[in-house]
Design a protein that fits this description.
- This protein is an alpha/beta fold.
- The chain folds into three domains: 149 residues, Type I PLP-dependent aspartate aminotransferase-like (Major domain) (Aspartate Aminotransferase, domain 2); 35 residues, no CATH class; 108 residues.
- Helix content is 36%, strand content 15%.
- The chain has twelve helices and ten strands.
- Strands 2-1-3-4-5-6-7 form a seven-stranded mixed β-sheet.
- Helix 1 packs parallel to helix 2.
- It is globular, with a radius of gyration of 20 Å.
Amino acid sequence: MIKKNYIEYWRNIPIFSKNNAKSNYLNINNIFPSGRQSITYILKKNKINRSDKVIIPEWSSNCLQSAVSKIANPIFMNEYLKSKSKIKVLILYYQWGWENLNSYIKIINTKFKNTLIIFDKVDNLDIFKINNQNENKINNKNIFFVYSFSKILGLQSGSLVSNNKKFIKIQYSKKETSFLKLFKKIKINNKEHRDKIKYIIKSEIFALPEGIKKWFSKNNLKLAINNELKKRKINFETILNSSLSNNWPKWMKNHNIENNIPNAVPLFRGNSEEFLKKKMLILKKNFKLESKIYHFNWSGNPFMPNYEKCLMVPIHGLVIKMQKIEKKINI
């Protein structure tokens, strides 16, 4: 359990940018309740059903697995690579915001040109950047990009979906909105139970919380994203320019930082779990920073995966002492 006032893996405090909210270029009907519900929505709208197989990344979160399994039959990428089953949907994840699309775009354009493709970009900040050269080379119009406001901005929920360089619009039902209001009236003191209610709201109730509407009425989304990008950039460059990045492959060191910076960095590849736990303790005790032992795909290529354990260290905008952090753990 993460203690109060600790910096979590993703932003747990909203970023505000109270400046000309009218320039958001978004309608409230562009905003989905959550990333997981937007994925379920895409599958439904494309008439995917229980008999259809959907490729999901290895080490996918429970949220993604449940979002897919509501509609279809999820299979992990490693299972697909072994069996070459006939599939209807391909879900690709830029892990923590790391992108290496150039290494597998040929595979997409040859083997998946008639497949529904969903890019899970919940950690990415390039919402308004339509000039991603690699993504623009994909020879398939049935592609959807999913973004998450809770992951990148620390909001309670909220998501965007783009298709053919346009954000999808949705219509919320009064019934679901009324149901959400009933849930909000429930007063629970137990944190574990509150978290369960939050999970149900983000996963099951297709309605937009009032808190999200309020944030968008008072804040400039583009400016908030740019502020987060600047802070991530400082942290990213601190790690990149230190010996902590020595064992990063070339594609990671050449990551394009103009449009997007990852939410977290993988560190201490090849070390024992005991070693990683010691580093975790240093970060927690000295900086109240939560890190996590996790499997990272060091190839960045889902079709030629190379998952190895590492320490996932957040570098989002709430992390403000990266130089001190780097010196403390780089011993």
